Amino acid sequence: MEIKVVKDIMGANDQIAQKNRQLFDKNKVFVVNVMASPGAGKTSLILETIKRLKGKVKVGVVEGDISSSLDAEAISKEDVPVVQINTGGECHLDASMTASALDNLPLADIELLLIENVGNLVCPAEFRIGEDMRILIASTPEGDDKPFKYPLMFHEADAVLINKIDLLPYLKFDVDAFSKAIKGINQKAKIFPLSCTTGDGIDKWVDWLRGQAKG
Amino acid sequence: MHELSITQSMLDLVLEQAKNAGAKEVGKINLVLGVVDRAVQFYFDFLSKGTPAEGATLSFKVIPTTARCRNCAQDFKLGEFDWTCPHCKGNNIEIVGGKELFVESIEVD
């Protein structure tokens, strides 16, 4: 006997993502899913963003890693609520892992929640976690061919942050070609060239983020 | 890798449907997806042990990655490094096929 099913396998994840979103809406939390490859500067970007929002916006952080709590320790020095999720081998955060972290965060006291996904340019794009916005950090040493190699990540991002622009004099990285490639698959993506080391371009990104969070 | 959690979600979905239909055994699962990964079969064999879906055949209907040009509204298959529309040479595209991942039907006894 054949039974017609036609059900999305990701449906279970999406349902939990919707519940997370409901919880965020109830507490008026704007949620950003921070995605990038390992070493692109996710934690550095989060630290720089927190520093600039200090006293203006109440920030909380979820750190997703396969193992260790190194990133959460670095964030906690900034005196913001932070929860570490260890995925224990999984290559991305999914909605239920995110939900488990939310129990340990004072959501009512958070206006902006930055969720650092596992360093990976493939899998995180496929799992919604209940976020309002997805950003992708691409750093210059990774090369300017990445939009072609990891199209889904670039397709799904609301903003692409080009980090480590202070290294441009030493690299064959064409910012214009890279931006054009991104726009080719994702016209709506905002692009912010910046450097977490020198601070160049960070204010522009943070101003835009604040505008989005208010809207 | 996330094939493990995806395969688990797929199995949960199949077992629920089979149970609702009062089936004792699942013989075949027809999947529609963008990418076939041998890992899905590997994890399925492992995860389905001892369930009514143990030993079921997995059938994969693969949907190629397809883009639609926003300028001229025509569909085309994506090349690896060339994301330009072959019809109008525009490069404002959206992905319209190849992201599918669902259970189309199951065959049970």
Descriptors:
heterodimer; A: 215 residues; alpha/beta; Rossmann fold; seven-stranded parallel beta sheet; 8 helices; 36% helix; 22% strand; globular; B: 109 residues; alpha+beta; hypothetical protein PF0899 fold; three-stranded mixed beta sheet; three-stranded antiparallel beta sheet; 2 helices; 6 strands; elongated
Quickly describe the structure.
The complex is a heterodimer of chains A (215) and B (109). Chain A is of the alpha/beta class and 215 residues long. Chain A is built from 8 helices and 8 strands; from the N terminus they run E-H-E-H-E-H-E-H-E-E-H-H-E-H-E-H.
Can you tell me about this structure?
- The complex is a heterodimer of chains A (215) and B (109).
- Chain A has 215 residues and is an alpha/beta fold.
- Chain A has one domain (11-214): Rossmann fold (3-Layer(aba) Sandwich).
- Chain A contains eight helices and eight strands.
- Chain A has helices at 11-26, 42-53, 70-76, 95-102, 146-149, 151-156, 175-185, 202-214, and strands at residues 2-8, 30-36, 59-65, 82-86, 112-116, 133-139, 159-163, 190-193.
- A seven-stranded parallel beta sheet of chain A has the order 4-3-5-2-6-7-8, sandwiched between helices.
- In chain A, strand 3, helix 3 (70-76) and strand 4 (82-86) form a beta-alpha-beta unit.
- The model of chain A has no long low-confidence stretch (mean pLDDT 94).
- By secondary structure, chain B is an alpha+beta fold.
- Chain B has one domain: hypothetical protein PF0899 fold, CATH 3.30.2320.
- In chain B, the strands form two sheets. A three-stranded mixed beta sheet of chain B has the order 2-1-6, with helices on one face. Chain B has a three-stranded antiparallel beta sheet with strand order 4-3-5, with no helix packed on it.
- In chain B, helix 1 (3-20) crosses helix 2 (38-47).
- The radius of gyration of chain B is 18 Å and the shape is elongated.
- The model of chain B has no long low-confidence stretch (mean pLDDT 88).
- Strand 1 of chain A pairs antiparallel with strand 6 of chain B.
